[in-house]
Predict the structure.
Amino acid sequence: MSSPGSTQIYPEPASTRNVYPNQIRKWKGERKIDDITVDGFCEETNTVYQFHGCFYHGCPDCFEGDTLNSLTAATMKTLFERTANTTARLRNRGYTVIEEWEHTSK
């Protein structure tokens, strides 16, 4: 369970098990919400679904923060911070955000 005030990047297991599979059929697919491209969106529940590839989003469980991404030349820490900022922006706009990391789906 997350501590109060912490930014939750990984969904709680109950969230993933109860919401994610039940809502996936209602996704409209990849789309833009304002200036942010999201992987899925359910208008009925105002829920954004994001699937983060570990390499492209700088997963801290899979990569050291100072490791350079060979495609972007950014550090994994920078990529992770960008991902966290995007999630925060969506939540600040009133969306529920469900996230899953690539390594947890294998």
The mean pLDDT is 81. The two ends are 22 Å apart (CA to CA). The first strand starts at residue 31 and ends at 33. Helices lie at 13-18, 20-23, 54-57, 76-92.
